[in-house]
Amino acid sequence: MIDDILRDAEHRMKKSLELLRNELSGIRAGRASPSLIEHLAVNYYGTPMPLNQLASITAPESRLLVIQVWDSSAVSAVEKALRQSELGLNPSVDGQTLRVLLPPLTEERRKQLVKMVHQHVEEAKVAIRNIRRDALADIKKLLKEKQISEDDERRAEQRLQDLTNRYIAEADKLGKQKEHDILEV
Length: 185
Prior knowledge:
This protein is an alpha+beta fold and 185 residues long.
């Protein structure tokens, strides 16, 4: 029973870290990357869809993204989504192809991006702590129902805390790595 609770908690913590990785990949560092915009929501016939389901995205140069939209009726929706994103992009349209020249990052913009990274890391850490809280409640419930002993409870709490510390350290590591990428000139 305790192992099931800890396994579930670890699985959910892994999901939180995976979400953090995806969010951080969407924050621009020095070089243009398709992952920067591939999950950008585009309003396609009233339905929000990720950009990578409507177009192919390539980065032929370090500061250029080329978006080849498959459906010509979606070009204006893709352009609108890019302009309204918090990334500050200004695409130029050429038929079904959009070219996005990424401006060099200013010091002020780098600081804004670092703040965004810190915010995402903190959200992930809060999610991990919430998972720990839920698992602790489940363990306490088992103790209350006399399905486990107090010693088992203490050991389970310690294992859960070790797990939590490991995933919070991993989230911090991901944040520091992204911060280093952003501040690198």
